[in-house]
Amino acid sequence: MKPRIIQVVITCWVVFTLGFFGQLPSWGQNKKPDNSAIKPVPKDKKRHEGFVALAKKGGIDLVFLGDSITDGWRGPPGEEIWKKHFQPAHAANFGISGDRTQHVLWRIQNGELEGYHAKAAVLMIGTNNLGNNTVEQIAEGITAIVQEIHKQQPETKVLRLAIFPRSQKAADPVRDKIKDINKIIAKLDDGGKTVRYLDIGDKFLDKSGNISKEIMPDFLHLSKAGYKIWAESIQPAVDELMR
């Protein structure tokens, strides 16, 4: 091949290479951000193992899944009310303080739904994701949990509770973020055939939309009065789903 032709070929190759690979960075510009809320992550394995052991014994007709707010049913604020409203329904409390959607997802993928067939599951999760994930990411994490429940227990009906309000003042921006998440997950409701969405958040608020210490002492976790409101507000829906 003559030197002139070789030079032309090399020049064309360089132009093509720069033009082609120069576009590669732009391919990732529209890439969906990595969502940690849907990536199963283990946490508190000892408590998880205790839940798995309980699950294997069977006899669970109603299961509660969630974070510290659900976990509180077994402590002084909620224990007495739990015994009255849910213990007779053969309920199990699989709530762990600090859990996010990814932690609950990991737990139910690793044994907490095995050994029994619940008639209903009460799911309240997402508040601990607020500082790390977007509205859409959190909603996606919650949806993933619902889907996993039905993957393992197709007959179980899910009572998907709206994320409870938090922070004392109604004007706190976190309230708007919670409302936006709830608007998305409300769409999971199919009339109670497999999922029932229920928002009881307003029941924890005063007339101005603020939260009192009598209901949430730290403006996040419930008092005994708060747990009473929760139990009485969901009891009819739980009873209906378990029929």
Task: Please state the oligomeric state of the protein chains shown.
Answer: single chain
Q: Tell how many strands the DSSP assignment holds.
A: 5
User: What does the largest sheet look like?
Assistant: 5 strands, parallel
Written as H for each helix and E for each strand, in order along the chain, the element string is HHHEHHEHEHEHEH
| Overall average pLDDT | 91
SS field, number of helical segments: 9
C-alpha termini separation: 84 Å
Detail the poorly predicted runs. Answer: 8-28
Radius of gyration: 24 Å
Shape: globular
Helix-strand category:
alpha/beta
Strands of the biggest beta sheet: in what spatial order?
Answer: 2-1-3-4-5
Strand residue content: 5-15%
Helix content: 40-55%
Structural descriptors:
single chain; globular; 243 residues; 5-stranded parallel beta sheet; alpha/beta
Structure, explained:
- With 243 residues, the protein is α/β, with parallel strands linked by helices.
- It has helices at residues 3-21, 24-27, 45-56, 68-71, 79-85, 101-109, 135-152, 173-185, 224-242; strands at 62-66, 91-95, 120-124, 157-161, 195-198.
- The radius of gyration is 24 Å and the shape is globular.
- The chain starts with a helix and ends with a helix.
- Mean pLDDT is 91; it is low at 8-28.
Ordered list of secondary-structure elements with their pairings:
Blueprint: H1 3-21, H2 24-27, H3 45-56, E1 62-66, H4 68-71, H5 79-85, E2 91-95, H6 101-109, E3 120-124, H7 135-152, E4 157-161, H8 173-185, E5 195-198, H9 224-242
Parallel strand pairs: 1-2, 1-3, 3-4, 4-5
